[in-house]
Amino acid sequence: MTAFERVRLPAFGGAAAWLNTEPLGPPELRGKAVLVDFWTLTCINWLRTVPYVRAWSQAYRDDGLIVIGVHTPEFTFERDVDRVRQAVAARRIDYPVAIDNDYAVWRAFDNHYWPALYFVDDAGVVRDEHFGEGRYDRSEQVIQRMLGVRRELVSPLVEGRGVEAEADWQQLRSPETYLGYARGENFASAGGIAYDERRDYDVPADLRPNHWALAGPWTAERENVLLDAAGGSIACRFHARDAHLVMSPGDGGPIPFRVLVDGAPPGDSHGGDVDANGEGLLQQGRLYQLLRERGTVGERSLRITFGAPGARAYAFTFG
Fold first, then answer.
1. Domain that residue 23 falls in
2. Where are the transmembrane segments (predicted)?
3. Is position 21 within any domain?
4. pLDDT tens, 201-240?
């Protein structure tokens, strides 16, 4: 028996609110097999797992499985319950979601990751756990063992679309890159980043792979960089099929933006949040898909320019 098999299902009493259900606790969960999924709405790794969790919830709910999503925010703007509610609708999540703004449920599970899955049997014992993407067939087999059923797996039939599509792992050579100074790295504008003060920046002519830079007046904050005037831009050099940027308009918006790839509009390789000319609109805080390469994947330079001040950018992610 492993260490986690001796752990009992923690209570959800620390949840600030619930979506899709009345509050759930020991009386409601007693004698039930439970799958707990920790997520945050801007996490690309979670977005690529949600088609599987959604499929498991639908395939096994009549067998007694209860899926509970626990939304624990990574960025401050993700604490907005209405924004989480919008993400739940966009991702077609119909199972219960606990709002964990104070990290109470996170701490009760001693969790450290997004996404994280905890598999709890009908005796309330955590029988398995998995962090990150992948291992879908094995996870579904764990569900079947907890429920005492055995039939063809649904996981091989799952196909994510849009931002939910599986990454092109063979071509993915760029890591998640945070822009706020608390976790930011690989910043390439001359003079480095200035903490909590407005500064004018320039993009270097020889931006190196997996580095990023700013152009125009920006204020670097702990979680993000904030644009102080229209016309400012962010550039990065990456190697991946997909490029995303977590952004928010703050209290303003909508903010128009334009994406160029290697100095030209993306054309057929535009992401789901921009058109072929690279035009997009920043209307709410979330992850925006800027590029999905439909040709040969290689090292590319991306530049996103904003038509109004107030844009906040948090992290590049790739797929």
1. 3-164
2. none
3. yes
4. 999 999 999 999 999 999 999 999 999 999 999 999 999 9
